[in-house]
Every structure is written in C-alpha cells, then in structure tokens.
Amino acid sequence: MVIFHALREAEQRRRPIRVAVLGTGYMGRGIAAQMLGRMPGLRAALLVNRTVGKAVAAYALAGVDPEAVVVSDDPRVLGQAIAEGRPAATGDFDAAGAVEGVDAVIEATGDVTVGAREALRWIGRRVPYVSMNAETDATVGCLLQHRARQAAVVYTTADGDQPGVLMRLVDYVRTIGFEVVAAVSCKGFLDVRATPDSVRPFAERMLQAPAKICSFADGTKMNIEQAVLANATGLVPDVRGMHGIATDLGHALEDFRARGVLDRGGVVEYTLSGDFGGGVFVIGRSDAPALTQQYLEVFKLGTGPDYLFYRPYHLCHFEAPLSAAEAVLFGVPTAAPLDAPVAEVVALAKRALRAGERLDGIGGYTVYGQIDRAEAVWQQGLLPVGLAAGARVRRDVPADRPLALDDVELDEEALPVRLWREQRHLFAPRRSVVAASSR
Question: Does 436 have pLDDT greater than 90?
Fold first, then answer.
C-alpha cells in the first residue's frame, strides 16, 4: 500500500500526523487506540469527550498512563502538550476547536448536531475532517462538502464502516472497467419495531448504548449508511427502503437478477440473512461480455455479464485512521458527496403517534428511517430522520407511515434544521441531475 510507505516515512522522520478524536465512546476509543502505537505515522494527539474521564480512560485502554495525560480546557495548554508529544484530553469542544497543532480530525460522536457543529468548526479552520458519523453525513453532508470545497479542505466519510468500505470497492470495480449496477450492504436481521428496551440486554453485553443498537436493529443505521454511499457515488435506491433481498453468497447474483434489481441501473441495496457476516459486495457489469467471460470464468467469478466482488469484512476503527492519513498526505477523501443529494432517509412512525408527542429520533421508540430518492423526499415534503429528534407531532400519524414536514413542528433554530434547509435551497435547482450523470 502506498499509504503504508508514506506513513512509515512520517514515523521515521518523527513527524506523525496529529489527530484529534472527537467522541471516545465505543468507536472513538477504538480509533484512538489504533493511533497510539499500532499504526505508524499517526498519533491520537487530542481526545475530546463531554465526560473528560472517558477520554482519559480511552488513553488508558491503549496503555497510556492516565497520570501522563494533560487534561485542560485551555487551548494553549492543550496545544503545548501536543507540540511536546504529550497526550492531551478535554471535555470542552469549544476549547478543542481552538487548539493549534492538530493535523486532522476524526469525529465519532454519532450525534447529528455535534457532528454538524464540529464539521463547520474544523472546515472553517481548514483542518481535514473525517466523519465517522453517518447520521450527520446523510442529513447535511452535501452542504458540508460544499463548504469544504469552498475552503479547499478535505471532508470525508471514514474508511472502515460500510459506506467507506463500499466506496473503495465501488472505485475499484469502476477502475478495472466494470459498470457498478449494485452496491450492497449485508444485514443479518431487521425489526422495525425494535426499541432501546428490546435490545438492551444485547447492548449491555456488547458494551454499547441501547439507542445505538436499536438503530442497527430497526434498519435506520443501514439505510443512513446506504444514503451516504448513494450521495458519494450517484447510485440510488430502487424503492423506498430498498428491497432487502434474502439470499446467500452462492445465490446472490441469481436472486438479484430474479428480483429485477440488476435491470434498474446503478442502485444501493441490502441483503437480509445469509452467510455474509460483516461483508459487503458490489455487482459489476462488463460492457464486453465475450472478452471478459473467457478470463473471469477461469478466475472463478462466473460467466457474466454480471460479476460479484465481495469483501468479507469491514473493520471500523481499525481502518478509520487511513482516511485521516489520505486526507493529510494526499488531499483526497475516502468518500464524499458528489454534489446535490440523490438520496435522503425519511422518518416513518414506529408505532401510532399522537398529536402533541415529542419524537425521540434515531434509535428511539417513535421513528425508524428508510432511504428514498431525494427528489421524491423533497417533492412529497417528507421529514428526514436526522431532523426528527425533539420535533413535536402536530396530528395523529399511523404506524409505518412516513412523516411529512407538515406533520411536525421543528425547532427552526436547531443547527441541523437550519443547515438542512440551507442545503435544500442550495441544491434544489439541480437535485435530480447527479444520479443520471454519475453512473
């Protein structure tokens, strides 16, 4: 890998890339651990968490003496620690945002508001920004990428999670001459009625927040991640929520053909159950089937013209720092919106909702999310799931019905709402163009 040699050179020159990690929950502390002695040329220089003790604990998990961590809310003190190569931590995001000496940021809070706020802050400072926050990316990522282009700085979705891993696979398949007809996430099960209570025992065993696990179980997270991929590739969902094809690795091509999905052009999709584990795959189509078949049949990929390119894993925090390295060393994103949104994730009622209720948002008791084409979302005036938290329901809404913007009262002063409306205004004239021009 070119990146390995570049990072090894940075390590040998004793000039590692100094990274601030925002959020030291389950994913953030893993990301930090990777950059504390496990990857050459990268150093977790500043850890930021509202409960600063969790940031210190993240250092300790990686073998750093907690007594050696410089804990402060003074940007000058934190900057001096970074300059001297000492580990630094703070519970003050504003203080962190004023620190000098940070070469890149990886944000892993999973909070739409925090993600948007921090992206704006660091983009404004022209510091490469890596988002492991698909919730923010799917909601206002196109606007954030617009701002990043204006500032001539990298804004990117992180490697390691499904959008980044699939983006690399899409790039690979396109580069070797295939048309991407489907980019597929693999899901083991789906329960749109899941709640934080129903998943709590599993969440506790996995040491994760019930709301986070709930967003996995009810499909919202997967739909969000596929929307992020859609906006970075121009691929679109065939139908709202995608089809969710029950299949396995040996029958995937056959089953996708039978459902007609491969006739639609470039789509994002997912499988349900099967033997895919934590894998993802891309289906590529050859425009020279006779020529391609004589080689790929020998190489055990089948007779074509459609071929399945499968990666059996995604490694989250192990791979996320690679995006920071590429952003700093090469000035390139792993995955970033092309331009206008081609997909959004709409909120559907998880149960019957009554007028006057407050929605609790992603991973909660009231709504789940499904991907749809941005054109349809905007024409129908539907509520993005990333804006749902805190909205008040104006009228009764039956279970499984998409919520319209008119069904709720939004806090118009909330940052995600303001940014989403700005994004909609910015891209409205050309919102249907990108998908057709990017396949």
Answer: no
What tokens were used for 185?
A: 């996430």
**78 and 186: one domain?**
no
Strand partners, 107: 22, 131
Q: What is the pTM of this model?
A: 0.96
67 by DSSP, 3-state: which? helix
Buried b / exposed e over 311-334, threshold 16 CB at 10 Å, is: beebebbbbbbbbbbbbbbeeebb
Closest to 347 measured CA to CA, from 327, 363, 331 = 363
DSSP string, 229-250: HHHHH--EESSTT---EE--TT
How many percent of the chain have pLDDT more than 90? Answer: 96
Calpha distance 218→363 (Å, rounded): 8
Domain boundary, last residue among 146, 161, 176: 161
| Chain Cα centroid distance, residue 396 | 32
Residues 77 and 138 reside in one and the same domain: yes
If asked whether residues 102 and 229 sit together in one domain, one would say: no
Among residues 127, 161, 195, the one where a domain terminates is 161
Longest dimension (CA), the chain: 66
User: Is 18 buried (19+), middle (13-18) or exposed (0-12) by CB count in 10 A?
Assistant: buried
How much is the pLDDT for 428?
Answer: 84
Q: What is the CATH number of the domain that holds 69?
A: 3.40.50.720
Q: How far is CA 339 from CA 36, 240, 388, 430, in A?
A: 35, 21, 24, 9
CB 105 within 8 A of CB 68: no
Q: Please check whether residues 249 and 328 belong to one and the same domain.
A: yes
Residue 123 shares a structural domain with residue 256: no
